[in-house]
Write a structure and sequence with these properties.
There is one protein chain. This protein is mainly α. The protein folds into two domains: 209 residues, MFS general substrate transporter like domains (Growth Hormone, Chain: A); 209 residues, Growth Hormone, Chain: A, CATH 1.20.1250.20. The protein is 77% helix and 0% strand. The protein is globular, with a radius of gyration of 24 Å.
């Protein structure tokens, strides 16, 4: 068997261990939605709002009405909004530090170090009843967001660097599979009769730190990234040992030769900082493609579906919309598995185009269904089917691929800075969609998804025209694709000047 196509137990363990960080990210994303009313009730008690309401509430008011009253109190609304939004703010801030943490002590030790944050966040939320729940939950969510911003960069970076070329796409997609699995687990655990109730909700939130504990025990068993050892630290023998652990007994000459060439390029480039990456014309095309792919993921409207699917299903006449939302989570997970199976056969570009085009059509169908369901009752089935299709197409391409394609588009020198910028772009656009969608929904009503359809059409055209296929190519070959448009003879002096400029800005 070709060594480039070998999957070993050590490689499987390393990928599984890294993906636990992504599972935690997904769980933290989804966990806050299900127990909203229960948590708002506790916020109300802590802030003294519930006792005020109870004092003036009419005797015949039901408990449900009292909860709704509390949920609409300005102080409760403010603290609840902060509990949801602070997660994205933490991620936006820490995504800039991915490159620094990854290079400080290595990918494995970097993931191990940041687990302290996840455990601290889990304890803050799990023990929130011991003090003021609103302060404890917001603090825990902020720390967890900071952790997830780091792990959403470190996990794809590590998996991308240890994966054999033949399986790089499939293994890279596991980051997204772990995220959607985490979301699904949080949806099920958040059901009222499981943990989403008045007594157990702190445990529900606190469990978001549990994968970090398991990961901390497994990480010491995982080999460090050979690319990091050779290209960043210059330790050839240690890189060879790591390769043999990951691939089994095999000839590592071709892998080391590829790394040697990449190291020579990286030495010419010097260490590329985030600022020098932004201003450099050498990497402009790759960076533009990477950022646009992350924007296409977040501005597709997928988070609007995740956050508001329960309300949309209720509008469509589903008697138990929370179970329909869990159905969306199941579809989400199944089609991410489809992507894992297809990504190294069909290719990244093809799957992204199919996904974006399918989502665009589904968004139009959803708009038609929601717009006409008051006149034609059967239209509710159209809107529900469109939601399921929308999620399915998202997970085939636009969901998983942006996370790992950034690691493929850049060589070792600029890779950490590029992953940091792409991560920050992802978190920022996620935050913007989460904050603005309710207002846009009020403004556009059932036509809100037409806006997303228009954006999806633009992203489909961009992907067709500008995104190259990276399937089965070395990092060198991918970089060459972007250099093809440059005139080599005229460009050489300019590139040298660029590299000098990069070195001076990096040294500074």
């Amino acid at each position: 068997m070709d060594s480039g196509k070998q999957l070993t137990g050590t490689l499987a363990l390393a990928v599984f261990t890294a993906a636990l960080g992504s599972l935690q990210y997904g769980y933290s994303l989804g966990v806050i939605n299900a127990p909203q009313k229960v948590i708002q009730n506790h916020y109300g008690r802590s802030l003294g709002v519930l006792s005020e309401r109870a004092a003036v509430a009419p005797e015949n008011a039901t408990e449900e009405e009292e909860f709704q009253e509390v949920g609409s109190h300005p102080s409760v609304v403010m603290y609840w909004s902060l509990s949801v939004a602070i997660f994205s703010v933490g991620g936006m801030v820490s995504s800039f530090l991915v490159g620094f943490v990854g290079d400080l002590r290595g990918r494995v030790k970097g993931m191990l170090m940041v687990n302290v944050l996840a455990v601290a966040a889990g304890l803050l939320m799990g023990l929130c009843k011991m003090w003021k729940p609103h302060i404890m939950v917001i603090s825990g969510r902020a720390v967890m967001g900071f952790y997830c911003g780091l792990t959403s960069g470190l996990v794809p970076m590590y998996i991308g660097e240890i994966a054999p070329k033949a399986y790089r796409g499939a293994l890279g997609t596991l980051h997204q599979l772990a995220i959607v699995t985490g979301i699904l687990i949080s949806q099920v655990a958040g059901l009222d009769f499981v943990l989403g109730n008045d007594d157990m909700w702190p445990l529900l939130l606190g469990l978001s730190g549990a994968p970090a504990v398991l990961q901390s025990f497994l990480l010491p068993l995982c080999p460090e990234s050979p690319r990091y050892l050779y290209i960043v630290l210059g330790k050839e023998q240690e890189a060879r040992t790591s390769l043999c652990r990951l691939k089994g007994p095999c000839d590592t000459t071709s892998d080391l030769e590829e790394m040697r060439r990449e190291k020579e390029e990286a030495d010419k480039e010097a260490r590329v900082s985030i600022l020098s990456l932004v201003v450099s014309s050498v990497y402009r095309q790759q960076l533009f493609v990477a950022l646009m792919m992350h924007l296409s993921q977040q501005l597709s409207g997928i988070n609007a579906i995740f956050y508001y699917s329960t309300a949309i299903f209720a509008q469509a006449g589903v008697s138990q919309p929370v179970y329909a939302t869990i159905g969306v989570g199941v579809i989400n997970t199944i089609f991410t598995m489809v992507s894992v199976a297809l990504v190294d056969k069909a290719g990244r570009r093809t799957l992204t185009l199919i996904g974006l085009g399918g989502m665009c059509c589904s968004a139009i169908a959803m708009t038609v269904g929601l717009g006409f369901q008051s006149q034609f009752p059967w239209m509710s089935y159209v809107s529900m089917s469109a939601i399921f299709l929308f999620v399915s197409f998202f997970e085939i391409g636009p969901g998983p691929i942006p996370w790992f394609i950034v690691a493929e588009l850049f060589s070792q020198g600029p890779r950490p800075a590029a992953i940091a910028l792409a991560g920050c772009c992802n978190w920022t656009s996620n935050f913007i969609v989460g904050m603005t969608f309710p207002y846009i929904q009020v403004w556009l009503g059932c036509y809100v998804f037409i806006l997303f359809a228009a954006l999806l059409f633009c992203f489909t055209v961009f992907t067709y025209l500008r995104v190259p296929e990276t399937k089965g190519k070395t990092f060198e070959e991918i970089a060459d694709v972007f250099q093809k448009g440059r005139k080599k003879p005229a460009q050489i002096p300019k590139d040298d000047a660029e590299l000098q400029q990069l070195k001076s800005s990096t040294d500074a």
